Amino acid sequence: MFLLILTTALSFFGAFIPIIIKPVLSLLCMKSKQESVLQNEILAIQREMSCTSAIDEFAKHARLQRRLNKVQEELQSRVNARLSQNVKLNLVITYGAQVLMGLLMLFLIWNYKYTPVIVVPEKWLLPFGSIISWPTDTAGGISITVWIVIAGTAARMATASLKSLK
């Protein structure tokens, strides 16, 4: 029973890794105070520009426009750097977690390959009982390899149905 619960939980956790990582990344890659300051500065410059006439005070308006362009470029470069960091972190965390899950599953398969995850009446598994129980050779037993495939498929289907609800 322990193997049944463990492999099912790990399969579902592995399928939900991308969904779990999104909130974690949003906390790690939040907008910085510098970006907020730059956005406030942009709004202040735009307010000041709306109060000045481009025709009557051309020099002042041109100075404000150059300053606005400079601040917008700086803000854009900071946002691009943050988004780039977000993508890198997303890839590293997602694939790192999936590699760890895969290694853990391989470890479980290697250590428990001759132990059935669950034993059911032999009639329930006919005519595929020998395939489903391989390599345990236990009548009515479901091997860990087959159970991981079944649980992983169910977990991916659950993930896909949750994504389609959004």
TrEMBL record:
It is found in: Endoplasmic reticulum membrane. Its main location: endoplasmic reticulum. GO terms for molecular function: protein-membrane adaptor activity. InterPro entries: Get1 (IPR028945), Helix_hairpin_bin_sf (IPR029012). Keywords: Endoplasmic reticulum, Membrane, Transmembrane, Transmembrane helix. GO terms for biological process: tail-anchored membrane protein insertion into ER membrane. The chain crosses the membrane at residues 6-25, 92-112, 132-155. It is a multi-pass membrane protein. The keyword Iron-sulfur does not apply. GO terms for cellular component: endoplasmic reticulum membrane; GET complex. PANTHER family: GUIDED ENTRY OF TAIL-ANCHORED PROTEINS FACTOR 1, TAIL-ANCHORED PROTEIN INSERTION RECEPTOR WRB. Belongs to the WRB/GET1 family. This is Guided entry of tail-anchored proteins factor 1.
